[in-house]
Design brief:
- Pfam families: F-box (PF00646), FBA_1 (PF07734).
- This is F-box domain-containing protein.
- It contains five helices and 25 strands.
- It is mainly β.
- It has a domain of 41 residues.
- The chain has a five-stranded antiparallel beta sheet with strand order 4-5-6-7-25, with no helix packed on it. Strands 3-2-1-24 form a four-stranded antiparallel beta sheet, with no helix packed on it.
- A hairpin with a 4-residue loop joins strand 21 and strand 22.
- It is globular.
């Protein structure tokens, strides 16, 4: 296997090669295949890739384009996935588009729960009992469908339609394990959700206790992905206090599998406007949409020091009329640029300092997701439940 190199030097060289090359090298010989598909090598390569990116990984986009069927008012939906890698030296984006498996097109509407290192979690929310969840590695075109969860509800139950699902996705660095968190809760009142966790390592679901105070699920949460930062998954939720609604961040430690709460700045905590968690690279961000003097604004708040309540800072504030009209804020990049969907359905990258706008795609979309991404070899070792797309 080593040829002219000592084995340890060869391994170090392979750790620094791109995923595409390593996939090809699995066909060189049995020894190289055994090395590259080994779990230790896979995660060592991932660690090396993350370190080399220096917080400037790629941007993963999911775009939905709505098309009208001829002769009626019905709409079809086309789904696109792309990866944008930024070369800061020449200020250029290279774009890689991912072909869709037929499986992804079987559902009316799927949502990206989140991205975590080299994997993407996708869920179909259309039917409570049948919500399909996928874990996908776009870089090597591999995915798996998660087994059926433990918590299901009969469609004969009158309260069935009142239940809501929401998810989380994160990486357990201690045990080298990706985990999906699935909540089932009543959407119209404060309640203690039922919670289960899927472990990719064990390929199974486990019910876990929810040891925290009841909360009210935001009506916007279902359309806003969670955020995984600092080994913790986060959602913005709220709780009633007397006649007021108090917003806070619900957290889930992926290693310890424990819940906690993070405090927002006072005016966000008491705001009746729209709050949502936001992808912000390695930082925890919150998006605030509000009205002031008959004008609508977006503002992005970043927790500069994780877990410290007083470390929230506003890093971006804009009238929704900027750039001809902002429809949605998708993400805050590590370099401070903001990913936006404009009123004309264009997806762009805005530099808040220079106010320069760079189109990210020529596709018009009615809905989109943006998340950070680094390429990985996870799923390369050919488990029987992993499929190609």
């Amino acid at each position: 296997m080593s040829g002219d190199f000592p084995p340890e030097i060869l391994v170090e060289i392979l750790h620094r090669l791109p995923v595409k090359s390593l996939v090809k090298f699995t066909s060189v010989c049995k020894a190289w295949n055994s090395l590259i598909t080994d779990q230790t090598f896979i995660f060592d390569h991932l660690d090396q890739t993350i370190q080399a990116s220096n917080g400037n990984g790629s941007l993963f986009l999911q775009l939905y384009r709505r098309t009208r069927e001829a002769g009626n008012q019905c709409f079809d939906y086309e789904e696109f996935y792309s990866l944008y890698s930024h070369n800061q030296q020449i200020d250029h984006f290279s774009v890689e588009r991912f072909p869709l498996s037929r499986l992804f097109q079987l559902y009316d509407y799927s949502t990206v729960v989140g991205t975590c290192d080299g994997l993407v979690c996708i869920a179909d929310y259309s039917i409570l009992d049948l919500a399909t969840i996928l874990i996908w590695n776009p870089s090597i075109r591999k995915y798996m469908v998660l087994p059926e969860p433990i918590l299901t509800y009969s469609t004969g139950n009158r309260q069935h339609e009142r239940y809501q699902l929401f998810f989380g996705f994160g990486f357990d660095a201690k045990n080298k394990d990706y985990k999906v968190i699935r909540f089932v809760t009543l959407g119209d009142k404060e309640s203690v959700p039922q919670v289960e966790v899927f472990s990719l390592a064990s390929r199974s679901w486990r019910s876990i206790p929810f040891r925290a105070s009841p909360f009210l699920l935001s009506q916007y949460l279902r359309n806003i992905p969670q955020v995984f930062v600092n080994g913790v998954v986060h959602w913005v939720v709220c709780r009633r206090s007397d006649d007021h609604i108090l917003n806070f961040i619900l957290s889930f430690d992926v290693v310890e599998e424990t819940f906690g709460e993070l405090t927002l700045p006072q005016h966000l905590r008491e705001s009746t406007s729209v709050l949502s968690i936001l992808q912000g690279g390695d930082s925890l961000c919150v998006l605030h949409t509000y009205c002031e003097e008959d004008k609508y604004f977006y503002s992005i708040w970043v927790m500069k020091e994780y877990g410290v309540a007083g470390s929230w800072n506003e890093v971006f504030r804009s009238d929704l009329k900027l750039c001809g009209g902002i429809s949605t804020v998708l993400a805050l990049c590590a370099d401070g640029k903001v990913v936006l969907v404009l009123k004309g359905r264009d997806v762009v990258l805005l530099d808040p300092v220079t106010q320069l706008v760079k189109p990210l795609t020529d596709l018009k979309c009615f809905n989109a997701f943006a998340g950070s991404y680094v390429k990985s070899l996870v799923f390369i070792n050919g488990e029987p439940d992993v499929m190609s797309c």
